[in-house]
Write the structure tokens for this entry.
Amino acid sequence: MQANDDSGPICGEGGIRAREVLDLVSDKWSLYVVAALGQGPLRFSQARRVVAGISQRMLTVTFRRLVRDGLVARTVTPTVPPQVTYSLTETGHSLRRAVQPLIEWAFTTVDDIDAARAAYDARVDEQG
């Protein structure tokens, strides 16, 4: 396919729809939340502890988006106070299975990337 060919799967209507789906999970927090829920259902406070660095507001926004998109189920148990748990739907589990190799790659290559950045920064600093 040529770079300016808009009839192919990446640039055509199908590509636009696929990009919209990828945009659902390409923000800063969605994959972390999906990975955390891959271990099992979590209450909001548990998820906040597991997903290090996420603010309460961002976790709320992320959960709402993932629930709306059908990746996460929100279950309210009618107790006093109500207990809310979040869990992956089947679609959410399929996403987790799809990105698991990427997550593992990130964990195994983080030191290599840090070393490459340090080497690059040292070269740039030497050049002025």
Summary: The mean pLDDT is 90. The longest strand covers residues 72-77.
